[in-house]
Amino acid sequence: MYATWSQATAKASDSRLEYEPVGSSGGVKAAQDRSVDFGASDRPLSRAALDQAGLVQFPTAIGGVVLMSNLPGIPSDKIKLDAEALPAIYLGRIKEWSSKR
Fold this sequence. Notes:
Helix content: 25-40%
Structural class: mainly alpha
Number of domains: 2
Number of strands: 0
């Protein structure tokens, strides 16, 4: 997304936006070190970390989380997750496919 914005900015104006995909921790570190004007991260920083570094944060995009599986002998179209099972997986109540609810 940031790379696309960078290209669009270059085409639309004389402004320049450079983006290096260095990962969340790299982006946060670069922002904390003041070696960049902005950094991006999938995980928000705590209020204490923001205050210590003198940073602010705000959402620029919302990403989706996708559940994936690799269960030998079970075709992917045969796995069904209902409205109770999926949150139980994310909350850590179901940790194995063979778990009983």
